[in-house]
Predict the structure.
Amino acid sequence: MADAALQLSADIAVQPELGMRSLRVLARLLDYPTEALQGAVDELIEALYVERRLPAALKADLMSWCQRLSEADLLELQSEYVALFDKGRAHSLLLFEHVHGESRDRGQAMVDLIDEYKAAGFELDARELPDYLPLFLEYLSTRSDEEIGRWLGEIRHILALLTARLEERGADQALVTRALLALIDAEDDVEAQREAVVGEKRDDTPEALDAVWEEEAVRFSAKSDEDCALQSAEGRRLAERKRQTPSQTVRIMSPEADAPRVNG
């Protein structure tokens, strides 16, 4: 579980008024399904119910999904999860894979993120990479609204792409990434990705996986950093887009975000 991968140092106390409980809920929902998840559904629904920063319709969809999770066969849930996230890279929950592929830049980005965790008083165990999205959300759940908004703004292009791809597959996990975008009022970003995603070839078919395996075998003979940096066409495309997109300041939606608007 993601929450077990981050350990808080004994001399650090997280202030209870900081962070968002709902981020921990979203982390659980995006993580590998377990008996513990199914057993905690009532608590997840309760936390979502009192979260006022999310649109009401999206909250209702998330709570309905929680109920379905509690009633589903666990082995089927786990099989579907593996098929969705562990085959191919299109739906990868490793954030930097979408930006850097397997280049050296990804390694440095992960080192920087680990330093961020340590500066906040957290230690990462060896079971998860630091850019694993559920783990990252666990960390954000302890931060202030300002920090949460800054980090979600940094990864909004990844969240939008993941949302479009997951929605194209009809996956309930798209509700999580859409909710993260909703927290910074960036749901419209998804539509900007829609056309490109519809035309994408799936990378989780047996043929696509065989092609990746053959390509990876060739890369063992790479003789330069440039060869390594060219490992992921998707990573190159997203990295280029990020370089071209100016950094934007975003903020977390206020708790009254889902209240009805009055015209006039």
Remarks:
- The chain has a mean pLDDT of 76.
- The chain is about 60% helix and 0% strand.
- The first strand starts at residue 6 and ends at 8.
- The longest helix spans residues 56-71.
